[in-house]
Amino acid sequence: MVIRTEGLSFSFGSQQVVKSLSLQVPEGSIYGFLGPNGAGKTTTIKMLLNLLQTDEGSIFVFEKELQTNRIAILSEIGSLIEQPAIYAHMSGRENLLNRAMLLGVKDARVDEMLALVKLTNAAGKKAGQYSLGMKQRLGIALALLSDPKLLILDEPTNGLDPNGIIEIRELLVRLTRDHNKTVFISSHLLAEIERMATHVGIINNGELLFQGSVKDLEAISQPQVYVETDNTVDAANLLKRNNYEVVDINHENLTVPFTSKKQMGEINALLNQNGITVFAINKQHKDLENLFLAITKSN
Amino acid sequence: MKGFILSFRSEFYKSRKTAGFWGAILLPFFVSLMALLIFYFKSEKFITMPAMMLWVQFALVALGLMGTLLLPMYTIFVAYSVNNVEHKADTWKTLFSLPISRWSVYGAKFAYAVFLVLLCLTLFVLFTITFGNLLSVLKPELKFNTYHLEWELTQVYFKLFLSSLGILSIQFLMSLLWSDFIKPMGVGFILTIVGVTAASKGWEYSYAFPYAHPMVALTTMFKNKKGPAQDIVIDVFTKDVFVAVAVSAVVFVVGYFIVQRKSVK
Predict the structure, then answer these.
(1) Residues of chain A with a CB closer than 8 angstroms to some CB in chain B
(2) B80-123, pLDDT tens digit by residue?
(3) Neighbours of A178 (CB within 10 A)
(4) Is CB count within 10 Å lower at the N or C end of chain A?
(5) Is the complex ipTM more than 0.90?
(6) Which residue, among B97, B161, B88, B92, has the nearest Cα to B124 in the 3D structure?
(7) Per the database record, which ranges form the ABC transporter domain (chain A) (predicted)?
(8) Residue in A82, A102, A142 nearest the CB of B6
């Protein structure tokens, strides 16, 4: 395990924000740390970086205890917490050069990172004038600068446009697949995590509700096939006659539990062959709220 | 130690383009330039003075300003400036998640603040000497070149430097813990006014109050005040200077323990 916590707890005053958390992050995984805003994600991440002192419990990173091996562990971690911390009066390159100096990293690496996050052209511009997406990319470049084994990223796609999100996702997948890095990434978007994570931990009100592989999660989250046709009632009856379970139906659309992509094609063909026009058919995920309900029920 | 040096270099790199750094250079330049202009345009007032008095009068333009309000205010500003860089950029969390000990990060930042005050005061010495000698070239009737005050001036500014350390350490800790501008600056200015008032009224315990130290340092700098002075003898290590250094050492260590235990927001 790259990260292992046992009974991790933290309180701000009398309010307990993290409750007996036991995380297991395997090597080479993209671990999606999922939860709504205020669930305790950032607090947990700050404890993993030794920024907050834990009330109870222990943290092991690379199988070493964090308190007693702080510097050795931190030298293998790159992190981005909340909004990126950037000196606004310095250029993007200067921000990276400053960090390179502190980490003892060669200056050549700075240009590599600028190219990687596509900021080479804006490298000389003051970082204070960057857009939110550019700041976020600079933050990711800062996190990657020391070529760390473990990346801890707190909502790194915040403020990025769809292209930026896709680029980050591909970058993270590449890092884990080709360079055997481990990525711990927090998000409040289930779909976002499902697209890239190999493992998932779900936190709500400071408690870990679920932890396991993405496959395990899918068993609980049960994606739906959403179908929009010119005649919803006829379509529903036709599907039922063909042994499909229709879970929800209204004037506009109906939904069927998702089993495979092939099944979606078959539904489409079946409806078309029986003279029903399909306007839309796609796979849909439960939102977090419904997922929490499903997890609570399955427990 | 490596972490400390890296952090110190980084402090310099970060501050190069800030008012905190340039203040250390521009403040002594402009104050000394002002003294130069006064002596250049009002040279008739000073022509009759013996060279030693000429130097003393010339140096006192800057010393008078620094000893009263300017040095405490500059010190307060430096302490604010080196910490504000992190508050403004929200970078405490990144500084403290670097593979560098908290001690190095904290120690280097404090050392850099000390360095800025030292730089500023050193430049006061250099500019005063340079501009004094420049005056004897521009206005040969001002006989600056016939007397040397370099050593005494260095001693006085070194004494001022030591006397500012108490204020610096207290302000540094306040600026580190409070992210806003108003609290450390406000408290600092009020205490400075109290200190200057106490020192100028000759309060007997003002040597124990850090914010009075720069002014007390100037009043205790002459070793022998009796009789007409033929030569100036500077007393650097007076009671107030020892208190200032001791206060800074204690506050620095206390600050370290606070930083060690502090959660980083």
Answers:
(1) 46, 49-53, 71-72, 74-75, 77, 79, 81-83, 85-90, 94, 97-98, 101-104, 142
(2) 999 999 999 999 999 999 999 999 999 999 999 999 999 999 99
(3) 8
(4) C
(5) no
(6) B161
(7) 3-230
(8) A102
